[in-house]
Amino acid sequence: MSYDLKTYRMPGLTGRGLGLSVSVLETDMARKILEPIVNSQLGMNEFRQHRYDIHPSFTPLHTNTSAVTATGAQRSVQLFMESVEEENLNQKSASLRGSLNCATLAYARDYRSELRSPLTVSLQLQAALESPHMQDSKAFVFTDSQALKHQAELSTKRFMAVQPRGLLEGVPVAIKDSINAVPYATTGGTEVFGQDHSAEKDATVVSRLRAAGAMVLGKTNMHEIGIGVTGANPHYGHCLNPWDTDFLAGGSSGGSAAAVASGICPVAIGSDGGGSVRIPAAFCGVVGLKPTWGRISSAGTLSVCDTVDHLGPIGASVDDVALAYATIAGPDPLYGPSCHQPFPHLSNYFKADLTGLKIGIYKPWFDHADKAIVAACREAVKVLESLGAEIVPVIIEGLEDMRLAHAVTIMTEMLSSVEQPHRETPERFNDDTRMLLAFARLFRSTDYVKAQRVRTRAIAQHEALYAKVDMLVTPATGALPPRRPKGSKVALDLGQMTEIMRFSINDNLVGMPAITLPVKLSGDGLPIGLQLHAGPWQEHVLLRTARSLESALRFNATHRPPHFFDFA
Q: Which residues form the Amidase domain (predicted)?
């Protein structure tokens, strides 16, 4: 089968044109008239003609086939933590594995040597959060100086008593506004959910960070209900790119990526239903990990697309992401899908030599991106080869049907989650959200079931692929960050959206892990990201490979955005 992923050239809509289109498409009569035209533009007519006589998979749940025992897995994480701790206290073995590139450790080192305390850092952080740059960037939607100070006081007391909870003790972290974190509301970037109601209990991921001693800075901005990939949001302000504020940070976890890229925190948590961790991480020049579906508990989150959504860490470096991952991953009885996983581990994490590692590349897909992105990612692939990896040509069939299956799945699930407010008070949503939800109403129940049949086929194909290679490499996105809209306007450009998401959505459909990391700056000074994809529960392989490449490229050691707070 030949490469079939299409490039969609559809006119972008903004302002009055977008508002008028929304008004028309939200009426039942107009929708019936326009349905054949819209479905043709979206590719749904061809999708409906394809037959898949296989059982549908309504979740991408993967069985535990790991050969690593629970004891072995726990020991590998313990060894990782011990190695990080050794690097923190002294650097005797740094020459054996390469010095850790971990912004998180700068806090731990200073706290232990009493150069500063969590309390003094919290005051500096509060001043930075109130600075004109951070206020204009719209990375955060909710912060609370008293809550931050209280956490810092408790953390400082633990250090004074020589009883830090862990390597994240006193380290600032940020939480996406779809994840519960006391004392903040969880709004999902919209006016529809709970703006006046603070969360009563932390999400599991937040409670695990707090148990490790982390200080929660606040809630970060996001694209409304996670339905877009630009980070434009009139409700809370458009989330701007720290590298150039004429551009957007990406979405939907744009605020989390922008906060890390700005130096405000070394780690933030996002969620990813179609690239929403990896896309903004790539746009903002930081590292983003989307783990296997169920690897990190989603208990206590506002998930509007359950079968494709994953929580994941965004970090200043691969080491920061690995440390966060080791802290928050693992089974949680409050979230059923997490209870089927093998124990998380980080075996061979410090092994920089990639000899024996096979990395697949599907050239027509890899090359289907902006020229500057393709060129930068090709250079990064050569570096992977120089580190010992073998690059293996592969073929992936049916990419266009996977794209449509993901679109039907995520949009149908999002519409189901906001069905009542969308019908009763659609004006409470942004126009771009309303338009996409109106499109979702064009999908049929038979489309959703067919999408799950495509998912079954896609999972089988990816499992066969990862039996031949250890991972797959692609660009992180097909396009560079979009420009910020003028004023409070939003735009909807489905062609651009498809370009940006081109290399992300398969992983969400099949529930397999992927990681993005920055590899170069474009001619305009905007970050370009590379993406590595792997089979179920192979986060340790992705993290090890990404760390080796990061160490060779030294991107985050030599590049920083113009507006950067050097707290580490």
A: 136-543
